[in-house]
Design brief:
The protein is globular and about 50 Å long. It contains seven helices and seven strands. α4 packs antiparallel against α5 and α4 runs antiparallel to α7. A hairpin with a 4-residue loop joins β5 and β6. The strands form two sheets. The chain has a four-stranded antiparallel beta sheet with strand order 3-4-2-7, sandwiched between helices. Strands 1-5-6 form a three-stranded mixed beta sheet, with helices on one face. It has one domain. The protein is α+β, with helices and mostly antiparallel strands and 202 residues long.
């Protein structure tokens, strides 16, 4: 993972999630990818995370400098769970599952509202943003944090926005659609596998 600046915070967890909680987490991830309701046709988009919403003026300024103006704005509730579905394509072992669950929890703990925004883009603008993604991320605020669990530590980057790679656009659009249906069914309360999983506050 490429660093985006110095470590801004260190979060410590006294206990790791239980095997039962990890199993529930894996089941939840699998369910997001399967929905009986087909999504509408995919359209180009980018997501502005809860971190990015705090500095959306700066992000819009950077986009406008490149000639990029979103066509429409919408809300994407439940960003922590959605972020996990987008970034974690496969959980190969328990360590990766632990990292993914704790990282999801950090988003929820730092930004309790969990609200992100989805910005519609024209196809040319989307392709331009996808190419400029690494450059734009160095121009707007990113949070790099260290996380310590009883067995190991790792670093994580919280980004202000997410742009799917061109080859992932259809898959990620489907995940967003399925996630939205799930939020509508259960409301905005966090999934049971994440409740009570908070870092130690000095």
């Amino acid at each position: 993972m490429k660093p985006y600046g110095p470590v801004l915070a260190h979060f410590t967890y006294d206990a790791a999630p239980t095997s039962r909680r990890l199993a529930d987490f894996r089941t939840r991830l699998a369910s997001i990818g399967a929905s009986p309701t087909p999504p509408p046709p995919a359209r180009p988009f980018m997501l502005v995370t809860p971190l990015g919403r705090e500095g959306s003026r700066s992000l819009r300024h950077q986009l406008r400098a490149e000639g990029i103006v979103p066509l429409a704005l919408g809300e994407a509730a439940g960003w922590p769970e959605l972020a996990t579905a987008l970034y974690v394509k496969k959980i190969a072992d328990e360590e990766r599952a632990l990292k993914a669950l704790v990282f999801e929890n950090l988003w929820r703990w730092l930004f309790p509202s969990g609200r992100a925004e989805i910005w519609d883009l024209s196809r040319p603008e989307y392709e331009l943003v996808a190419r400029l993604k690494p450059i734009l991320r160095h121009k707007v605020a990113n949070w790099r944090v260290r996380v310590s669990l009883p067995a190991f530590s790792f670093y994580a980057n919280l980004h202000p926005f997410h742009v799917p790679d061109v080859e992932d656009l259809g898959r990620e659009w489907r995940l967003i659609w399925n996630h939205r249906l799930g939020v509508e069914r259960r409301g905005h309360s966090p999934p049971s596998d994440c409740r009570g999983l908070d870092p130690v506050v000095p």
